[in-house]
Amino acid sequence: MARRIFLAAPLFCESEREFNSKVASRLRSAGCEVWLAQEVAIYKKGSAHVKRKVFREDLSALKASDVVVAVLDGVDVDTGVAFELGYAHALEKPLIGLKTDHRTFSKTEEVNLMVEAPLVKLCRSVDELTEYLTSNFR
To answer: If you count Cβ atoms within 10 Å of the first and of the last residue's Cβ in the chain, which end, N or C, has fewer?
Structure first.
C-alpha cells in the first residue's frame, strides 16, 4: 500500500469536508498516511504572504506523496484539484481518481479528458479505491 497519499479534494462546503474526512479515515484504516488540506488550515481571508505559504505547503505535500488520489465528483472538476493533478502529473506521481457522482462531463467523457487521461485508475466508490490501493501500491 502506498505509504503517503495526497488527497486532492474540494473543501468549500460542509458536505465536501465530511466526505473528504470519510475517505481519509478509510485510507488511514487501510494503513495509509494521508495528507488532506482541510486538516492543515483553511484560510477564508489572508494576506498575499499567507496565501503563498498555503500554496507552498500544498506543493510540498504533493512532492512528498507516493500517490495522489483526487475526488472528481461533480459535472466538472474543482479548479484546485485540477491544478494539483496537473502538478502531480508533471512530478510523475501515480494519479487515481475517485468519482462517486453519476453525472458526466459530456456525452463521451466521465470527466474532462485532460483530467481523466493521466489517471492510472478511476474508482467509483471508496471501497473500490481502498481495494485498488491495497492491491496495487504495497
So the answer is: C
Which cell goes with 118? 493521466
Percentage of the chain beyond pLDDT 90 is 71
pTM: 0.92
Domain that holds residue 128: 4-136
Distance set, CA 68 to CA 25, 46, 47, 48 (Å) = 16, 27, 28, 27
Q: In what order do the strands lie in the sheet with 33-36?
A: 33-36, 4-8, 67-71, 95-98, 121-123
Structural domain total, the chain: 1
CATH number, position 129: 3.40.50.450
C-alpha cell at 79: 479548479
